[in-house]
Design a protein that fits this description.
- The chain is mainly α and about 350 residues long.
- The protein has two domains: about 300 residues, Rhodopsin 7-helix transmembrane proteins (Rhopdopsin 7-helix transmembrane proteins, Up-down Bundle); about 40 residues.
- Helix content is about 85%, strand content about 5%.
- Helix 4 runs parallel beside helix 8, helix 8 runs antiparallel to helix 10 and helix 11 runs antiparallel to helix 12.
- The C terminus is likely disordered.
- Keywords: Cell membrane, G-protein coupled receptor, Membrane, Receptor, Transducer, Transmembrane, Transmembrane helix.
Length: about 350
């Protein structure tokens, strides 16, 4: 191996580590804070009536679990070389199960939300009726059951494996059949999910353009979408774009690893494969932490709600501080008055 190869291998190995140490922690903080604020806003009565908001709430809860399990575990494992899951079989299985479930569950809910926006943007009245809370509850329940069941293979096949003599790592089962199943199922998901998002979003926006082309006098008889619905549709569209963009590197890494799996990889090829997987995982985490900023950027109604929320929080704090200051001032005045009275009594005596 030449010196130039060693140099490139070192760079490829270090970039994901530094990203996890600094950028990963940044994502962890803003992701938790942003998801919490978005959940508080969407739980208000004026928002939670909307069907699309229900899907967003499911996404926010799933993303919060992902951030505090998968992302946090990746920060410790890749950024600080601390692998707690290697110390216990139970932790090992749970970590991989939750990671696999939450990472695949989020795009599925985005697809369901895209289907809902497609239905509500239809000019057919009967089609629009399928966009309802009951349908949302039913579809998310079915999706949760299917993906929770499908992800059970991680609980069965993931274990603490002896990768090298004396080196034990929490990883998938190394049998050829399971590796083929996991690899090809991941490749299929990496292709079908973005394709479905693109198709559904494109059709929904075509429906919206047709609605806007209709004269205003006739719109009330045709559409049921209001300004908030249009803003939520744009939010969903941006989230789909972010998810697809952030998963390109990871998808390329999966395809590259699949292509060279039957070949004897050189150290540089192995380093490139690890880089695509590790760096792709860092980029993959971005889509789970940026929903709040998408809502802030796209939706004017959401921005106003956040401003009201922050104003209420600040106002309460200011009121509390002012009350404490007033109490302190009154206490000082009482002490001054008491001292004055005592001194007066002493003089008279």
């Amino acid at each position: 191996m030449s010196s130039s190869d060693s140099y490139y291998i070192e760079i490829l190995n270090n970039i994901p580590i530094y990203f996890q140490q600094y950028f990963g922690i940044f994502l962890y903080i803003i992701g938790n804070i942003g998801n919490l604020l978005a959940i508080i806003v969407f739980f208000k009565r004026s928002w939670r009536k909307n069907v699309c908001v229900f899907y967003f709430l499911v996404c926010l809860f799933a993303n919060t679990i992902f951030i505090n399990s998968t992302l946090l575990g990746s920060i410790f494992a890749l950024g600080f070389n601390s692998t707690i899951q290697n110390s216990s079989v139970i932790l090992c299985k749970l970590f991989y199960y939750v990671s696999y479930l939450t990472s695949t569950y989020y795009p599925v809910i985005l697809i369901l939300a895209s289907i809902d926006r497609l239905l509500i943007s239809s000019q057919n009245i009967d089609t629009r009726l399928y966009s309802s809370k009951r349908m949302a509850y039913f579809s998310t329940s079915i999706a949760t059951f299917i993906w929770s069941t499908f992800a059970l293979h991680t609980l069965i096949k993931v274990n603490i494996q002896e990768m090298y003599p004396g080196v034990f790592i929490c990883y998938y089962d190394l049998s050829q059949f399971y590796l083929n199943f996991f690899t090809y199922s991941t490749v299929v998901q990496s292709v079908l999910v973005p394709f479905s998002m693109i198709v559904l979003s494109t059709i929904a926006f075509k429906n919206v353009r047709r609605i806007r082309a209709i004269p205003r006098q006739e719109r009330r008889q045709i559409r049921t979408m209001n300004k908030k619905d249009f803003q939520l549709l744009r939010c969903l569209y941006i989230q789909n774009i972010i998810y697809i963009t952030c998963n390109i590197v990871l998808s390329v890494g999966i395809v590259y690893a699949t292509a060279i799996r039957y070949e004897t990889a050189t150290p540089l090829q192995q380093a490139l494969n690890n880089f695509l997987n590790n760096f792709g995982s860092v980029l993959h985490d971005i889509s789970y932490c940026t929903s709040f900023f998408t809502f802030i950027y796209v939706s004017k109604a959401f921005r106003l709600e956040v401003k009201r929320l922050i104003f209420k929080m600040v106002r309460k704090d200011l009121t509390t501080i002012r009350e404490e200051e007033n109490n302190q001032q009154e206490a000082v005045k009482d002490n001054i008055g008491l001292n004055h009275a005592i001194s007066t009594i002493g003089v008279n005596a």
